[in-house]
């Protein structure tokens, strides 16, 4: 059977869908994974065949409306218009991707199309081909405002198909453990989280404990000097003053800037699933996959969610007892110091992380979910 995976424009989209795609290949199915041109190396880096679905630079898709007008990007990430803006550029990615994916489908007709949470080209292509489409989200990631913005931008494609909105999936898959899933989240087929990251040659320090307590600080795969950089920088400074060994998985530009300033840190692109078991704590932006990777290693978390769409998930993780979550206006120097002290010295946080890891272990593995996906066809 042929399964086409359509991912969103960030590495996390690829890492989230890769376990199911890999399991499908292991079961003997043919698999292709599409993404924006800039992320094809991430797909091939996890051992999957990649399709470049766009030619326009991603920066241009984010900055320019289909009419040619420049986008107005709100400064306030909590403003509803920022969510709609995010939906609009996701819609532009989908519109351009759909052109390439039609060409792929003409030569290689998929039996099922599986899309990331906001990879709307998956829904439209599947509707055109009259095949099932599956929406694969993670940690119950969903923002209704994003859907609305995308539908505005995709109005020509929807009208061509006789639709007034993006059609619902035949199946929703989610890897969020039930204990931290939002109460109003849509019913979904559970899938066990399996960490899959871009890898590099592992060095001994990555998988062994150091002499000092190790703390991982990350803004995720998209952290740059313009995105969460100051937050990462201030946290590194705080932790070094506490005598911690600080490691920062980050893109090269961010890593170079941090090493130039602090020197005594390890910063760069290294696989989170390899280093996490050697950490006593992780400080991050409340990314779903980052948090689940930490959970599987029993590592407490300090969550600093910047975007409104992840704050409820961060609250639920903290409520469970394996993390502390501080909103931007709560992350004062005193509150951060208090949170670090508790997370590093109170064993209950690590115990609750281990409890949640055991719950993840009871969820259906990707190999089991593959059979459900293929049965739709």
UniProtKB/TrEMBL annotation:
It comes from the Bacteria. Keywords: Glycosyltransferase, Transferase. Residues 23-220 form the Erythromycin biosynthesis protein CIII-like N-terminal domain. Residues 238-373 form the Erythromycin biosynthesis protein CIII-like C-terminal domain. SUPFAM superfamilies: UDP-Glycosyltransferase/glycogen phosphorylase (SSF53756). Gene3D superfamilies: Glycogen Phosphorylase B. Belongs to the glycosyltransferase 28 family. This is Nucleotide disphospho-sugar-binding domain-containing protein. It comes from Streptomyces huasconensis. The lineage of its organism: Bacteria, Bacillati, Actinomycetota, Actinomycetes, Kitasatosporales.
């Amino acid at each position: 059977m042929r399964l086409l995976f359509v991912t969103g424009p960030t590495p996390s989209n690829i890492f989230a869908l890769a376990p199911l795609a890999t399991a499908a290949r292991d079961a003997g199915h043919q698999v292709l994974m599409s993404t924006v041109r800039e992320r094809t190396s991430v797909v091939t880096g996890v051992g999957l065949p990649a399709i470049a679905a766009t030619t326009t630079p991603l920066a241009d898709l984010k900055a320019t409306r289909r009419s040619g007008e420049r986008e107005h990007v709100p400064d306030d990430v909590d403003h509803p218009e920022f969510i709609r803006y995010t939906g609009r550029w996701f819609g532009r990615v989908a519109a351009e991707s759909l052109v390439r994916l039609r060409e792929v489908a003409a030569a290689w007709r998929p039996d099922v199309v599986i899309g990331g949470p906001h990879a709307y080209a998956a829904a439209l292509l599947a509707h055109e081909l009259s095949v099932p489409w599956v929406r694969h989200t993670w940690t119950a990631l969903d923002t209704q405002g994003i859907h609305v913005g995308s539908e505005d931008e995709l109005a020509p494609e929807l009208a061509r198909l006789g639709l007034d909105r993006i059609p619902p999936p035949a199946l929703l898959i989610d890897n969020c453990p039930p204990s931290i899933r939002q109460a109003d989240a849509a019913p979904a087929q559970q899938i066990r989280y399996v960490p899959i990251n871009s890898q590099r040659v592992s060095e001994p320090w990555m998988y062994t404990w150091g002499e000092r307590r190790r703390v991982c600080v990350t803004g995720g795969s998209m952290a740059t000097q313009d995105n969460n950089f100051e937050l990462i920088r201030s946290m590194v400074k705080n932790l070094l003053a506490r005598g911690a060994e600080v490691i920062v998985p980050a893109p090269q530009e961010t890593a170079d800037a941090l090493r130039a300033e602090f020197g005594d840190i390890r910063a760069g692109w290294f696989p989170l699933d390899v280093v996490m078991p050697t950490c006593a704590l992780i400080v991050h932006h409340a990314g779903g996959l980052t948090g689940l990777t930490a959970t599987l290693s029993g590592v407490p978390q300090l969550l600093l969610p910047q975007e409104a769409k992840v704050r409820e998930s961060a609250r639920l993780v903290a409520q469970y007892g394996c993390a502390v979550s501080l909103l931007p206006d709560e992350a004062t120097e005193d509150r951060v110091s208090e949170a670090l002290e508790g997370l590093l010295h109170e064993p209950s946080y690590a115990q609750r992380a281990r409890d949640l890891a055991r719950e993840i272990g009871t969820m259906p593995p990707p190999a089991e979910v593959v059979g459900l996906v293929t049965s739709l066809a």
